[in-house]
Design a protein that fits this description.
It contains 3 helices and no strands. It is an all-alpha fold. The relative contact order is 0.12. It comes from Paenibacillus cucumis.
């Protein structure tokens, strides 16, 4: 999970902002399920 998304999720949980949590959750599933380009796959495999 990208750091920017982790930071926003932590902020939303801290503020108990359920609308923001749902939105970020949808973003995460979209990000995770989208086909990655070959350069992104190589970067993710190195981490």
């Amino acid at each position: 999970m990208p750091q920017w998304l982790c930071n926003q999720l932590m902020r939303a949980f801290h503020k108990k902002d359920s609308r923001q949590i749902k939105l970020l959750n949808e973003c995460w599933y979209f990000y995770r399920n989208k086909p990655a380009s070959s350069s992104q796959r190589n970067i993710e495999n190195e981490i």
